[in-house]
Amino acid sequence: MSADREGTSRSWRDQALVVLVYALLALVMTWPLVTHLRSAVPGPPGDNLEYVWKLWWFKEAITTPGVSPFYNPNIFFPFGYPLALSETTLAHTALGLPLTLAFGEVAAYNLLMLLSFVWAGYATWLLCRRLGAGTWAALIGGAVFAFAPYRLSHMGAGHLPLMGTGWIALLFWALEGLVERPDWRRGLWVGLAYGLMALSSWYYAVIVGMFAGVFLLLRARPWRERLWRWSLWRSLLLGGALCVLMLAPALGPMLQVYGQGQASYDASLAFLDRWSASPLDFVYPNAMHSLWGAPLTRAYYQNINENLLYLGLVALALAGIGIWARRREAATRVYVWLGVIALVMALGMTLHWAGEPVYLPVPEAVEETFARGMYALTGKWALHKARFAALRKPGAIVLPLPTLLLYLFVPFVNAMRVWTRFGVVTLLAVSVMAAWGLDALQRRMPSRARGWAAAGALLLVLVDFSVAPYPYGRTLVAPQPLDQWLAAQPAEGAVAQFPLHKTWFGWMLDANRIHGRPLAYGYGTFAPEAYSDAMVVLEDWPSDEALAALRAWGVRYVVMGARSYETRWPETERRLAELPIAEVALFEDAPRFVGDRLLYLLPATDDVPSTQLVNGVLQVYLDDENHVYDIQ
After folding, report:
1. Across the strands, what pairs with 630?
2. With 90 as the cut, is the pLDDT of residue 623 above it?
3. β-strands 40-42, 71-72: how paired?
4. By percentage, how much of the chain surpasses pLDDT 90?
5. Which positions ≥6 away from 393 have C-beta within 8 Å?
6. What is the spatial distance between Cα 630 and Cα 251, in angstroms, rounded to a whole number?
7. What are the structural domain ranges in the chain?
8. CB 428 within 8 A of CB 172
9. pLDDT for the residue numbered 225
């Protein structure tokens, strides 16, 4: 065998072994996910069931002639649901279609979760190898990126789109190759990687798109030799054309709802500022940890869906070594800058500590001058107007950060609210530098010790990030008695659910998958404008006016969650008795959430409602007493 063929064969063996290692680690680090592929999904009921429903809907739409996967007329009925109001995540629903067809949407969802860990690790391994790390040092970089709390917490939150981080690593792998030696193939790789990343999550399309531009500016130095080469721009244009072709089916509906003003936040800066990271979030130890997660959860409040940004003690130590070892290399400066800038952006619109904005005491005259300036900036000069008043505090000022300017002046950023997600770029930068650090250590060791060093480093990283058995439990995905009854009713008609605030949960949307009836409610990032306007009529339910509206919409059954009304239920039941409607059924919800080890410790906040998931207090949203009324 020639040396070239032998080298190629060894490279493929190494890659196959790396993929196998990440696959085994995915099973261990997400345990017990693999044991309930068809019966449950990770985490409490929420967005996870929204994306189970979307996998199902994509299958139904694609296999039904004349039905669009981007529009469902039976959600937010009778107004319909343009799915572009939320993440369509075609990189999961479309690429995962064979899994959905073969195993069903629940198993497909879980398999996509598991595969995302393998892909994130492998794609980062490719990037680290391209940046000069050895085979097993690069394995550490991939493990840091794949199994960090950022990804494990989003798995429990049900954020399937955000699990597509492997495309981010692949994009930087492609960009590295393109800057080094531009050609049409590498340009196509850039377009393919960016397109699949954007089809995974629009958040990543905006966030990583910005940092891809920063990368090109930093990595292409000296600009005279690299940035202005026609071959580079020709390759980028070719990749861009491929990307546009890939995005066109999803981008058209998204731009349409955005242009109509339906996919942006019209809220106070206090609401938008809430979704910011604290500097401590990046170094606060893993609050999901199998051994010490409970005391850490009690000691310091974090939004467990968004703020678990811990980069890892082992990873940071290795990254520090990597920075020092390669301090004279241009690539080191680039990834340090990318990591630092992304961290600052993740801190949000104003500086926070422990989930709350930091206020600096100042004289009254200074506060008034500052407030006038902020009112002008946010309400007069901004491209996207915002209301500053809710952040104003007598005798003190907030400390604005660069992300505020992004929101106010950059297109599409006003459709975002969770600034912590910028931290994924910081995590990628640390992962790369951790691989460099282990590589530098291995080069100073005897060859026979290098494998042991890699194994030891991998074990330490995994122990640092350990969460098994998964601490936020799992949601049982089985038909509820109520949904089975609705499916069996011969009469046509939509279903409405009260109280209205109960409808804004992913498991409420998933009921449509079971009984197939139109829902006079829905769930997603944004609701259709017509639906939001119409809901004003229903705020006084039960009433004659609201009843007339429901009948006009074609609603047949109204489901009343008695325990969700708490102390208001007796009065609500009395008012229902005064209407010309009939109670036809009563159902207790079957338990749908098991295995929680940490969520019950969290205090109730505006971000995390006080349900059985929090503080062990109320169970009204999950295990309700459902009274069904026939209103026709």
Report:
1. 557, 582
2. no
3. unpaired
4. 75
5. 359, 367
6. 41
7. 120-344+422-465, 476-630
8. yes
9. 60
